[in-house]
Amino acid sequence: MKKISSQTKYEEILMEQPKYKRWYDHDPVLLQVINILRDYQTELRAQAEVFLLKIEEKVSKETIDKFYEMVRPANGNRWYDKDPVISKTVELLRVVPPEVQKAAAEHFLKTLKELGIEPKLDGQTPTEQK
């Protein structure tokens, strides 16, 4: 009987796990929301502000600001680092558990739909329903 080393078993487990390039690639709904935020930062900034206000109600603005100072990169090269509201929103989504990410993403899409905004993912601007 062949003995399997713990290193070999660890490598097998790693091979079985899906590999994601970015932290949001694991969930198609979350991926869609991140792409929408990236493509329509200006148009959706108000929605991001509402999201942050809801989080502030639960934990406090000071807590969010302290957290953001800890995670904000010094060079700010990522697409969402240009606007502090969008950046805080994305960073909060990044650190919460996957089930919270999914719920927040679904709520975001639902809110857009309720506002009559149908985001386009093919480079077009979001459309408003009349």
List the helices and strands and how they pair.
Layout: H1 6-16, H2 28-39, H3 41-59, H4 61-71, H5 84-95, H6 98-114, E1 117-118, E2 127-128
Antiparallel strand pairs: 1-2
Helix pairs in contact: 2-6, 3-4, 3-5
Which keywords apply here?
two-stranded antiparallel sheet, 6 helices, mainly alpha
Number of strands: 2
Strand count, sense and barrel status of the largest sheet are: 2 strands, antiparallel
How would the global form be characterised?
A: globular
Helix content estimate: 55-70%
H and E order: HHHHHHEE
Low-confidence stretches: none
Percent of residues in beta strands: under 5%
Number of H- or I-type helical stretches: 6
Strand order of the largest sheet: 1-2
Radius of gyration equals 18 Å
Q: Strand pairing plus helix content: what structural class?
A: mainly alpha
* Mean pLDDT across residues: 79
CA(first)-CA(last) distance: 71 Å
